Amino acid sequence: MAGQDQVSISHHHSTEEEDAFTTRLASLGYEIAVLNGTGVILPPLCDVPAGPFLMGSDSVHDEQAYDEEKPQHWMTLPAFRIARFPVTVAEYARFVRASGHAEPTSISNRPTWQQQRERPDHPVVNVTWHDAAAYAAWLASLTGEPWRLPSEAEWEKAARWDGTARIFPWGDEFDLERCNTDEGGMGTTTPVGAYPSGASPCGAQDMAGNAWEWTGSTFEPYPYNADDERESADSSELCVLRGGSWLSADTIARTACRGHFPPGSANGYSGFRLTRSVSGS
After folding, report:
1. Cα–Cα distance between 115 and 113 in angstroms, integer?
2. What is the tally of helices (H) and strands (E) in the chain?
3. What Å distances lie between residue 193 and 25, 88, 133, 215, CA to CA?
4. pLDDT tens digit string along 38-54?
């Protein structure tokens, strides 16, 4: 992992947050690190190479495509690394404890923060766009590495591109055995990595269903243009979420589907994942 020489790996479990670092998370590639005296959990990453990809949808290829996903168009991105899984409760709990940031909540307050804490390997939910951006900034400041929310374009490339634009991370046909959506009847989030057969071409998991994921982009029409301020770092406009959730139908879990909420909204089916630029790309 880049920056490893600045990271002290710890296997000492003392606080409640450290106890939440389960054997299962370790088996998935997460690491506990102590950075300037603060304990954090670092996620495993997937490499996404530089180059072009087809973004958006073509109704000829995908009959379920929404108008806001059109026109399909080419985008070229530099190389980046994206977290293999969405940010978990265990990771976010350390941020809350160390920074004093407010605990996740929502109008309905379901699940409560205590209920979330009982499921440390689930994606954290009830977080706003501002919460997600604050977490990324906190981790970046501790590690000295450029952690951030993925842009909408980065998220989509990581979710679907292998030389063709897959409709779902695993291919063009929906399969309820590969993701946590409404069709599976779970009725709530599931542990990250519970659907390894649903991995995207780069190896990222849970990119269809489980929890919506905030991106660093505001909701603007296509074609996508990274220079039109849609990748604002302090958004007050509608922000894009991707991937659908446990509450979503298969149509919403498609890799090109674009969700959008006000940045201050929080609910029991929305979380986020992180990405990191690659030096020199």
Report:
1. 5
2. 6, 13
3. 9, 11, 23, 20
4. 989 999 999 999 999 99
pLDDT tens per residue across span 142-168: 999 999 999 999 999 999 999 999 999
Torsion angles phi and psi, residue 39, rounded to 5: -80, 130
Selection from 132, 135, 126, 129 nearest residue 106 by Cα: 126
**C-alpha 84: how far from chain center:** 8
Query: Residue 17: phi, psi to the nearest 5?
Result: -65, -40
What angle (nearest 5°) sits at the alpha carbon of residue 244, between those of residues 107 and 57?
A: 135
The domains of the chain are located at 45-277
Burial class of 241 by CB neighbour count within 10 A (0 to 12, 13 to 18, 19+) = buried
**Residue labelled with tokens 């897959």:** 166
Helix (H, G, I), strand (E, B) or coil at 74: strand
The residue assigned the tokens 């599931």 is 190
Contact 188, 116 (CB under 8 A): no
CA distance linking residue 265 with residue 272, whole number of Å: 13
Q: Which two structure tokens, joined as six digits, stand for 42? A: 């670092």
CA-atom Rg of the chain in angstroms: 18
pLDDT at position 6 is 33
CA distances from 243 to 119, 146, 156 (A): 21, 23, 9
- Beta strand 212-218 with 239-242 is antiparallel
- Count of positions (residues) in the chain: 281
Q: Which CATH superfamily includes the segment(s) 45-277?
A: paralog of FGE (formylglycine-generating enzyme) (3.90.1580.10)
CA neighbor of 186 nearest in space, from 119, 101, 90: 119
